Amino acid sequence: MNAALFRDVASAEGWSDATQIAVLLRYIAQQAPAGAFGAFLAGQRADPADEDAGTDTADAFMRAVMILLADPGLKRNAAFRSHCRHAQGLLTPRDAAERWCRWSLG
Fold it and tell me: Distance between alpha carbon 39 and the CA centroid of its chain, in Å?
């Protein structure tokens, strides 16, 4: 799939993020074999120590906090992801890590 084409059509149609995701999921569902998507997602899982994984600043911020906490398993913790989402842009990764420690221990 051509990402530029998708962005152009989504922009021209005024699709929201939710609509874009729904369109992509319908596209994926039509692809064969079904297990290929699972394999693709497994390959997309970022190693928290991999500085080049992904370009999303929210993901980079969360990775930086996980590295400081030395706990890559936190990426599967919904409360931790929410904490990082709210802390990004307001706190440094170190401050976010310290607040997470205080909150999770308290």
Answer: 17
Whether 75 and 84 have beta carbons less than 8 Å apart is answered as no
More confident residue, 12 or 82: 82
Nearest by Cα to 86 from 53, 61, 103: 61
Q: pLDDT tens for residues 19-54?
A: 888 888 888 777 767 667 666 666 656 555 555 555
Token digits of residue 49: 């120590």
Domain definitions of the chain by residue range:
1-44, 48-106
Residue 82: pLDDT over 80? yes
Query: In terms of pTM, does the model score above 0.70?
Result: no
Q: Name the β-bridge partners of 88.
A: 91
